[in-house]
Specification:
Structural class: alpha+beta
Distance between the termini: 15 Å
Number of strands: 5
Shape: flat
Length: about 110
Amino acid sequence: MARAGHTCTGIDFSLASVAYARETAAALVPGGRLLLEASTGGSIKATGSAERSWYTARSGLWSDRPHLALEESFWDEGAQAATTRHYVVDAESGGVPPQEGFVAITAVRR
């Protein structure tokens, strides 16, 4: 896509996403297909401007155990970038393991 003149910057620091990417990287073979999640500048700004939220789950992407997920987002107008932070609180222990704090940063390029 870069050769076609497209520019996109996406950074994901979540250990779950990085682990998933490493596990599936072997599936990318010559002649294979890559599926991208495209976002508009407006949707990225909306993500960065979203209100704080939370939910509970028995299991999911963030944890295989029952947990409370907290999410907060920020929009940086100068950088045209959204930052979303996810915190996971274990339902049984009440602990927030260091590896359970996830940050995703998405930038708009024009």
